[in-house]
Specification:
The protein has about 100 residues and is α+β, with helices and mostly antiparallel strands. The protein has a single domain, classed as SH3 type barrels. Helix content is about 40%, strand content about 30%. It is elongated.
Amino acid sequence: MNAASFSGIQSFLPLILIFGVFYFLLIRPQQKHQNDLKSQLKQLKRGDKVVTAGGIVGTVARVLDESSEIDVDIAPNVRVSVVRSTITSVIAPRGENDIKPK
């Protein structure tokens, strides 16, 4: 290997290092979060609290496995249908032994 080819490889080394850092700090955690959300959406059941992309918090009232829509109660006597893919997070239920805020 001559000096010119070594200097060419050496000039790409910082770019490769930056890509590696971006992959492990940004891309990989985001992919993990998306996969977790996808599995949570498949396991949705009646009574789960969800947050939609519009910021609406509601309780799942009805889920049909073959449908992409879910009925969500957002207030007493107010039920809306939302598309499953617009749910951004599933809120974990609180246990009875959890400390409640004062």
